[in-house]
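Q: Please design a sequence for this.
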């Protein structure tokens, strides 16, 4: 059985997948609902939200199958992420790419497979929304379009999770900065949670996405450069 080649952007794809912080998370109703809809629309007993990492495909949501992951070398989805278009395999037992696959020769005895890649706004293909049957089959044009639409909905939920996580982190940093900060009255260093004294810039940069630019206020300018006129401007 030939293994799927790696996508040309594999390193970037894996980095993007990690950014979503979705792997090995508990089930969520939104994704469970989508696989149920995919199974119903496509008329298949199995439907999965499958995410492909370095060594496996992991199922964020699944219906009709008890497994939570399979090795990447066996994954139909590892082939599906090579393109942005759905991969449809009418009869895996007659397809040279899959006929010796353990998932074809053994449980769940895959014959029909259709997978719509999960394409992020950045163009990364994280995995698929796929439907599977133990009998050969096809999808109508309407079913294919519906599967693609549902795959886009999966990506939207992934984006919602990512953005919500980023907002929660930003809120936590904001709360940290808005609290009482122990600051040295002489050198103005700030004591952090590990009891180390750090420069103000280093402390703030570690708690908020900011960059510093330095200048001299009028009071300090007059004290240190009494013979020079303070520059005018914004």
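A: Design:
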């Amino acid at each position: 059985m030939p293994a799927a080649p790696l996508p040309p952007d594999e390193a970037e794809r894996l980095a993007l997948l990690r950014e979503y912080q979705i792997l090995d998370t508990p089930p969520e109703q939104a994704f469970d609902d989508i696989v149920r809809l995919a199974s119903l629309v496509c008329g298949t007993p199995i439907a999965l939200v499958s995410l492909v990492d370095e060594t496996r495909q992991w199922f964020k949501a699944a219906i009709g199958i008890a497994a939570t992951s399979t090795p990447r070398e066996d994954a139909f989805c590892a082939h599906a992420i090579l393109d942005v278009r759905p991969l449809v395999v009418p009869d895996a037992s007659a397809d040279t790419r899959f006929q010796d696959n353990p998932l074809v020769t053994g449980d769940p005895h895959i014959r029909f497979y259709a997978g719509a890649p999960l394409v992020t706004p950045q163009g990364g293909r994280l995995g698929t929304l796929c439907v599977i049957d133990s009998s050969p089959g096809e999808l109508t044009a309407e079913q294919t379009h519906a599967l693609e639409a549902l795959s886009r909905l999966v990506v939207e939920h992934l984006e919602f999770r990512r953005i919500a996580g980023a907002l929660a982190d930003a809120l936590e940093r904001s709360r940290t900065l808005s609290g009482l900060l122990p600051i040295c009255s002489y050198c103005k260093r700030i004591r952090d949670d590990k009891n180390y004294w750090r420069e103000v810039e280093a402390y703030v940069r570690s708690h908020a996405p900011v960059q510093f630019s330095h200048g001299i206020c009028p009071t300090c300018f007059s004290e240190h450069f009494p013979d020079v006129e303070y520059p005018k401007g914004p």
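Q: Thanks. Anything notable?
A: The beta strands are 46-52, 56-63, 69-71, 87-89, 112-119, 125-133, 190-191, 197-198. Residues 171 and 208 are 10 Å apart (CA to CA).
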